[in-house]
Amino acid sequence: KIVAAVADCTGHGVPGAFMSMLGVSFLNEIVNKGDAIQPGMILDLLRETIIRALHQTGKEGENKDGMDISLVVIDQATGQINFAGAYNPLYVVRDGEVLELKADRMPIGIYQDKNDLFSTKTMDIQKGDTLFMQSDGFEDQFGGPEGKKLKAKAYKELLIKLKDLPMADIRDQLDTFIMEWMHGYAQVDDILVMGIRF
Question: What is the per-residue pLDDT across 83-92, written as a single tens digit (0 to 9) for each?
Answer without folding.
Answer: 999 999 999 9
